[in-house]
């Protein structure tokens, strides 16, 4: 059981938009920055979003992040088959004094 | 360019220890920390801890306290993660990742090292 809760899977058609939610509490998302990672099969995670809504250099603006209260959301527009991957949210948990991740969401582009 | 290159796959017996290395290049090693994250087969990401390459300060996940040790060798820009008293549920891919601070996200990751614990 992960500290952060994500839906196990989401799906959408190519070109469409999808959102992935990440729910936590005041000890983690509520008072700390959220980051999002993309993990393609057999590869290391890749940072997509940091500080709730910032994109590292090279990440297209099709990827966006937002946070409200104790929840965060990753949005992906203009879906491509290459976006099929597992997506993880992560943040610091002040009560656990540990970095925590969601259980991951598998995105299928139909 | 920033690169983190990890050591190769390991097979260990229960009760043994494993030490995974992570050689950094393309940046000033002592200006950042290194996080270690593991991923059991078919499972999600689990944070193991963080070490400052500047002063060697460490912060470990509570569940691994007493079994894990993270170190750095600034002369070779290499970070190490040693896990002792291995159990079958330690079987996982182990990643090192650059993280400026303890709470920072990780923008650069190693390729991962598969550690298999089996009798």
Question: What does this entry look like structurally?
Answer:
The complex is a heterodimer of chains A (110) and B (119). Chain A is mostly beta strands and 110 residues long. Chain A has strands spanning 9-12, 18-23, 34-39, 46-49, 63-68, 71-76, 85-93, 98-101, 105-109. In chain A, strands 1, 3, 4, 7, 8 and 9 form a six-stranded mixed β-sheet that branches. Chain A has a three-stranded antiparallel β-sheet with strand order 2-6-5, with no helix packed on it. Chain A starts with 8 loop residues before the first strand and ends with a strand. By secondary structure, chain B is mainly β. In chain B, strand 4 (33-39) and strand 5 form a beta hairpin. Chain B is globular. The mean pLDDT of chain B is 96. Chain B has strands spanning 3-6, 10-12, 18-25, 33-39, 45-52, 58-60, 68-73, 78-83, 92-99, 108-109, 113-117. Classes of the chains: A mainly beta (110), B mainly beta (119). The A-B interface holds A 2, 32-33, 35, 37, 44-47, 50-51, 56, 88, 90, 92, 96-104 and B 35, 37, 44-47, 50, 59, 61-62, 95, 97, 102-103, 105-107, 109-112.
